[in-house]
Design brief:
There is one protein chain. It is built from 7 helices and 20 strands. The strands form 4 sheets. The chain has a 6-stranded antiparallel sheet, with no helix packed on it. By secondary structure, it is α+β, with helices and mostly antiparallel strands.
């Protein structure tokens, strides 16, 4: 398929999806789903329609965590959670977050029942995007299961007011009013509307909101119980540092532009933070190097948005020098 101005494309080495707004010689200016515009060689791009295509009889991610909605989508405007039923995997169902708006947002997601809970997932979803959240077993149904979300709309001057919808997954309603949306999953979907539009009021975490967050943590701590053996093993095996130097992330680093490398580094950083939060790490080191400080600044900006982070500091360390940021999580 020919790629030109206006085409939706994927950056091969970082996985980011966007639209070409201009082509200068063999370099495309690509507007990503989060609003950033970066230059990228045409040889490092591929059509998003080719990437997004999925077999009609067997659904698979192909390494993708999120993808663009088509312009012809019949999903109502607003933000939704969706559950997909796959006849090839009858013991489980897939959960998706659908952002059918023109604004991106940071989010936190967790499934909890009266007797167990999944690890918390933190991410970012762009405008007109689908995000694959998790795969959940049918054994969760009938246990008072709920899906807890926290959203922070991304504004030009920071993030907007937090929204925290909760989806009560009741068994009778769960199996009613299915819809077909092949661009998300070939099997029928159950849609759970979260809200129609984002609240675009910028805010800062006040003392009251911090107290509410602390109370919520204490309330759910009573439900956590003792960690399963595999959770203990996962925490013991977790590497409490990540090296974000490009040569540590990909063998093809010498073929990437500086902005492509930055996107790749941020993608690995956010994935690492999700794992650190999931296993309840106490502290970690993000090794970013010194350079011109762009990566360090991007990391600091994102760390400030994580409610699970108690503090972070870039100080001299005998092993890492000035090239690492220490992150301490809330207990």
């Amino acid at each position: 398929m020919m790629i030109g101005e206006g085409s939706r494309v994927r950056l091969i080495y970082t996985g980011d999806v966007g639209k070409i707004i201009r082509i200068d010689d063999d370099v495309a200016q690509v507007e990503l789903s989060d609003g950033d515009v970066i230059p990228c060689p045409m040889e490092n791009l591929e059509s998003v329609t080719a990437v997004a295509a999925k077999p009609s009889n067997e659904w698979q991610l192909n390494g993708e965590k999120s993808w663009l909605l088509s312009k012809s989508t019949q999903i109502g405007s607003g933000v939704h959670m969706a559950a997909a039923f796959d006849e090839n995997d009858p013991q489980n169902f897939e959960l998706f977050l659908i952002n059918n708006t023109d604004q991106s947002a940071l989010f936190s997601f967790q499934i909890k029942s009266k007797i167990k809970q999944q690890g918390k997932l933190n991410g970012k979803i762009g405008a007109m995007m689908v995000y694959h959240l998790d795969k959940i077993g049918f054994t969760w149904l009938g246990e008072g299961t709920k899906a807890y979300f926290e959203f922070w709309p991304v504004l030009q001057n920071g993030t907007g007011k937090k929204l925290d919808p909760v989806v009560n997954i009741k068994v009778p309603q769960f199996f009613e009013n299915h819809q077909t949306h092949a661009e998300i999953h070939p099997q029928p979907l159950k849609l759970f509307p979260l809200f129609k539009k984002w609240v675009a009021e910028p805010t800062e975490m006040s003392k009251e909101s911090l107290q509410s967050y602390t109370k919520e943590k204490m309330r759910w701590r009573e439900w956590e119980g003792i960690m399963d053996n595999h959770e203990v093993e996962a925490k013991a095996a977790f590497n409490h540092k990540i090296d974000l130097h490009a040569e540590s992330l990909t063998e093809m680093y010498d073929q990437l532009g500086s902005l492509e490398i930055l996107k790749l580094q941020i993608r690995h950083f956010e994935k690492y933070m999700t794992e650190a939060i999931k296993i309840n790490a106490d502290r970690v080191f993000i090794i970013h190097g010194i350079g011109k400080g762009k990566l360090r600044q991007e990391i600091a900006t994102r760390l400030a948005r994580y409610p699970q982070v108690a503090s972070y500091v870039n100080e001299y360390h005998p092993r890492y020098g000035w090239g690492a940021t220490e992150v301490v999580f809330r207990s």
